[in-house]
Amino acid sequence: MWTLIICSISFQGLIELYEAIGNYKKVVEACDTVICLYHAIGNQAHLNDYRRRLAVAYAALNEHEKALKCWELFLKDPSLSEPLYLEALCGTVDAKTAIMENFVQKIYDTHVTEGNDLARRNAENEWLSNGEYIKMEEMLSEILKRKPCSEKYEALLLQLLIWRMRTCSSSKGSGQKFMY
Fold first, then answer.
1. 71, 99, 108, 128 - which has most CB atoms within 10 Å?
2. Are 136 and 143 within 8 A, CB to CB?
3. CB-neighbour burial class of residue 174 (10 A; exposed 0-12, middle 13-18, buried 19+)
């Protein structure tokens, strides 16, 4: 048991060093090790701290799918503190936003010959068709209830609503309704 504790303390120092110099690949490796150690010890408080650091490191490496998985684990924990829950909710939305932007950009790149505005709208419409935006709108609404006056999330919610309005107005008669 003491060996696990000493190892975890050593890795904690490495994580802090790697974070300070911006070496997030090493942060991920060290966090994985510390998470395993704290899981074996059963220390939930430290385990959550290093899971949070792992999610942040993945985001810094633009590995948004992995960051999203880390943040979503937090949202399933009913015993989570309010500040950590809010950070996980924001991290989830940030990861989903990055994934959405990457998706829209990839679709845009394939349709760019149609003209910039039309290609961008086609890409936005394709992303909206998967229904993921509803979950994002719900999360954004929850963030704004808990953390009012957050310009970043207000702007993102507004952007999603604009996309939905555009989609609804361009598909009149298709049965799609705008809910807000």
1. 71
2. no
3. exposed
Residues 54, 70: contact at Cβ < 8 Å?
yes
25 contacts 61 by C-beta, under 8 angstroms:
yes
Q: Which of 28, 40, 44 is nearest to 1 (CA)?
A: 40
Inter-residue contact 153 to 93 (CB < 8 Å):
yes
Those residues whose C-beta lies under 8 Å from the C-beta of residue 55, and which sit 6 or more positions away, are 67, 70, 71, 74, 88, 91
Decide if 10 contacts 40 (C-beta within 8 A).
Answer: no
pLDDT tens-digit series, residues 144-171:
898 877 888 899 888 888 877 877 666 5
Provide the whole-model pTM.
0.76
For helices 82-111 and 151-170, angle between their N-to-C axes, nearest 10 degrees:
40
CA atoms within 13 A on the CB side of 140: 23
80-94: burial string, b at 16+ Cβ within 10 Å, e else: eeeeebebbbbbbbb
Tens of pLDDT along 83-140? 999 999 999 999 999 998 888 888 777 766 656 667 777 777 777 777 777 888 889 8
Six-digit token string for 119: 């290609």
